[in-house]
Design brief:
4 strands, two-stranded parallel ribbon, disordered N terminus, about 350 residues, single chain, two-stranded antiparallel sheet, about 65% helix, 17 helices, about 0% strand, mainly alpha
Length: about 350
């Protein structure tokens, strides 16, 4: 989809458009930190996470561990959302406390590299949905543009033709993919240097090893090897599915700018993002990512303020003639899958 065909924003004062919106948001106090809200959220989320692992220990060698593994997938994803907020410094202005929470949530609790994720996610925020700049839409197991599809060969081409049908099943492997990508980021080197910049590489490596050792030791200590393996499979698969379902509605199927598109920061972020409407239950379930437009415009805005920022941002976009995409959760998935299916059309033809 060509960006020029989607929006015809006014040329007048383009350079100051974001500054005007930022002033409105700041005057509303929506960039102020919410320490009380985050303390409550951290206590409840980590409390549920720890309580879940205590339940695993107490339940012992039982097949009821499998439903508990599904609940732990939910708790793990909620902890990951805390790591996301810490990475954007939504909790604290200072880097130190943010990194501490990020390392605890990411490396210790979830088992993914916080430093790798911050680097990757920051590149995504800088150029969302840009094929050459956004790592989230680079060609891989899935392809996001017809050009990427035409470059596939063999099994990859067969998958690209049918990728919309395999999207949700493939998310069951996303948890494993995140673990593997974290290890590669810590040890991977290019031209004699580490490929991924990371401030605390040795600490992150040690924490990932400790996480893995504790995870395996706990499961094998309380249940048989078969039940332990099945618990891990259910836990990791559903965690990956939940994570993928939380992030998929945000940009998939939205316009993908190229080097020829000249967009200011405001339009770059709004035109490539999609909001998901819903209740506060949706806010909690998606970790605030349902306010993707507001989050991309103000990444360090505390999660609790995104709902209040939405009407301000939406009204401003109407003033500026900028399309503001918002849909229901099911429709967001339909649009994302529709895009994946359309990308494979040249191969099916």
């Amino acid at each position: 989809m060509a960006l020029g065909a989607v929006a015809e924003p006014p040329v007048r004062r383009r350079g100051s458009d974001y500054a005007q919106l930022s002033r409105r948001i700041s005057q509303a106090g929506l960039l102020e930190r919410r320490p009380g809200w985050y303390v409550t959220r951290i206590v409840l989320t980590l409390g549920a996470f720890v309580a879940g692992w205590v339940a695993v220990f107490l339940l012992g060698d039982s097949w009821w561990q499998l439903p508990l593994a599904a609940l732990m997938a939910v708790a793990t994803t909620q902890v990951a959302f805390l790591g996301h907020d810490a990475g954007h410094r939504q909790m604290f202005r200072r880097r130190g406390p943010s990194e501490l929470v990020g390392l605890l949530a990411g490396n210790v609790a979830v088992g993914i590299s916080y430093g790798w994720w911050v680097d990757k996610h920051n590149r995504h925020h800088a150029n969302p949905n840009h094929e050459d700049e956004d790592p989230d839409v680079g060609a891989g197991a899935l392809v996001w543009t017809p050009e990427q599809a035409l470059e596939t060969r063999g099994f990859g081409r067969w998958m690209a033709q049918r990728q919309a049908y395999f999207f949700f099943p493939m998310l069951l492997l996303e948890g494993l993919n995140l673990h593997v990508a974290s290890i590669r980021a810590i040890v991977g080197r290019e031209d004699g240097k580490y490929a991924v910049p990371m401030r605390h590489r040795a600490v992150e490596a040690a924490l990932l090893v400790a996480h893995t050792a504790a995870y395996v030791a706990l499961l094998l200590a309380v249940m048989s090897p078969v039940k332990a393996l099945l618990f891990a499979a259910v836990h990791q698969a559903l965690w990956g599915l939940y994570m993928g379902c939380a992030f998929a509605p945000n940009h998939k199927g939205m316009p993908m700018p190229t080097a020829e598109d000249e967009l200011d920061f405001l339009r770059k972020q709004v035109l490539t993002s999609r909001n998901v409407r819903g209740s506060r239950l949706v806010d909690t379930t998606l970790g605030g990512l349902n306010y993707q437009i507001e989050h991309h415009l103000f990444p360090n805005m505390p999660r609790a303020n995104l709902r209040r920022a939405q009407p301000i941002v939406r009204a401003y976009c109407v003033e500026q003639g900028i399309p503001y995409a918002e849909t229901g959760l099911v429709e967001s998935y339909r649009q994302a899958l529709g895009h994946l299916h359309e990308v494979g059309r040249p191969l099916r033809g």
